[in-house]
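Format notes (please read before filing issues)

Several people have asked whether sequences and structure tokens are stored in separate files. They are not. Every record keeps both together, in the order shown below: the sequence lines, then the token lines. Line labels are part of the format and must not be stripped during preprocessing.
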Amino acid sequence: MKILFISGLNEKERRLNDFMHDIVLHGLREIYGDSVIDYPGVWYMYRDEVKKRNYDINNLWGKGFTLYNSLFNYQQIDRTDIEKKIKTNYFDFIIFGSIHKPRSFLNEAINSKSKIIFVDGNDHPFINEQIMNKGVYFKRELISENVKNVYPINFAIPKKKIIHTINPKPLHILAPLTPGKYSSYVYKNEQDYYQCYQNSIFALTYKKVGWDSLRHYEILMNGCIPLFLNIDKCPAKILTNLPKKLFLDIFNQYSWILNQFFPTNIYKMKFLSIEKFFLYFLNLFKKKHTSISLINSHPEIIEIKKRMIDYTKKNLTTEKVANNMISDTIRYYT
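Then the structure lines:
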């Protein structure tokens, strides 16, 4: 299997990285190794090249957490004669990792016999109709129904980042990091960030610009349980790899714990309501749970955590995303 991954890397951009683009490349490299040629080279994904260039991955979007500094052997990949290889049908697949960046060799690829894949990882739901029918199109925030060559795609995480052991005695009921509240973004390194979730029973998460967010997966991979606001409103073709029905059941069963926290401390303005303040004050004089007392009174929580980890290992890895993409594309072209 020979795969060309067109990266569209633009060194002039302030943020080099693109989560969906990088997730797909990571998964492909994990499965197919050096058979995947990233062109031009996505050097910030490779530990040896990052070190060689003395690059601070904290400059990446998301501080370089979770996805980065994890691939190897950058210099061993043969990136020569790409145009000639495309024209001579050397590649089985040509993948454009981000349709919103420069698409080198687009015409050459379309005129070849290679199977063509377009990845659209943008937050908005709009499909690029100019290239949609030129190959198989994978859309992250997909709302269109029944378009035969358009498939949903989701974020994911490297399998090796998923914890193996659940913390049975977490310190917090609710993770201290609140999405969108920048005063809670205090974590300067990846491990401290992960500990935030490993030391918590639940974590609040929700739709920001788009429904999909790397945060959902980082919560899960660290053995924390998402309390996902308004998950019942998520369109059917978005977050297709996540157990949305289970998330809704969990929220309905445990969202009462949010009443222990003053609303402005955990919600952004758009989620505030008179009802939330009323419920907080209603519960103000009730005995509050600690993390340990909550687990003691709800021992099923540990089983839910284990179930979430098992699900994450099976369904939410970069390898799973890459494998699904290749499989869907083969079926489409067959």
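For reference, the curators noted about this record: The chain has a mean pLDDT of 93. The beta strands are 3-6, 36-39, 93-96, 115-120, 136-139, 150-152, 172-174, 200-205, 225-228.
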